[in-house]
Amino acid sequence: MAPIAVGDVVPDGTISFFDENDQLQSVSVHSLAAGKKVILFGVPGAFTPTCSMKHVPGFIEKAEELKSKGVDEIICFSVNDPFVMKAWGKTYPENKHVKFVADGSGEYTHLLGLELDLKDKGLGVRSRRFALLIDNLKVTVANVESGGEFTVSSADDILKAL
């Protein structure tokens, strides 16, 4: 499957997260993104070094600036279960705007065409590192990394595109 690209409509699929009342929610991506400007950024794994020390903190630190440029939602996405994503999100007490969501079985990652095979590292099939800017379900920016790189999918890269 070809990776999601600029001009594509994001596929619908189900993702899970714990809401502000600590209730597990499973919702469609379209219900989260329809009529909104959304950043969906994906990471290979929760609690992994580049994801935890660079990728996620950048979006948390730049969240107010991103929102001031019209972004409605900032979603951190990973092939992990929602309990892991909830625990990971709690390690960022300063976070007010980034929603941590789970693609437990990797089905949505497959729909995006952004799978990353890390079986040789004992991690199974994960998500490639990426950042998408989605405007009313249409991809306007698709910054997808190669392998384990972190060169085009930062919050600063999205800010430059806004």
TrEMBL record:
UniProt keyword list: Antioxidant, Oxidoreductase, Peroxidase, Redox-active center
Among InterPro entries, the record links this protein to: PRX5-like (IPR037944), Redoxin (IPR013740), Thioredoxin-like_sf (IPR036249), Thioredoxin_domain (IPR013766)
Enzyme Commission number, as recorded: 1.11.1.25
Q: Which GO terms describe its biological process?
A: cell redox homeostasis; cellular response to oxidative stress; hydrogen peroxide catabolic process
The family annotation for this protein states:
Belongs to the peroxiredoxin family. Prx5 subfamily.
* Described purpose of this protein according to its UniProt entry: Thiol-specific peroxidase that catalyzes the reduction of hydrogen peroxide and organic hydroperoxides to water and alcohols, respectively. Plays a role in cell protection against oxidative stress by detoxifying peroxides.
Give the EC class as a word.
oxidoreductase
> What Gene Ontology cellular-component terms does the record carry?
cytoplasm
- Output the Gene3D superfamilies linked to this UniProt entry: Glutaredoxin (3.40.30.10)
Q: Which reaction does it catalyse?
A: [glutaredoxin]-dithiol + a hydroperoxide = [glutaredoxin]-disulfide + an alcohol + H2O
Matching PANTHER family: PEROXIREDOXIN, PEROXIREDOXIN-2A-RELATED
Q: Supply the name of the protein.
A: Glutaredoxin-dependent peroxiredoxin
Pfam families reported for this sequence: Redoxin (PF08534)
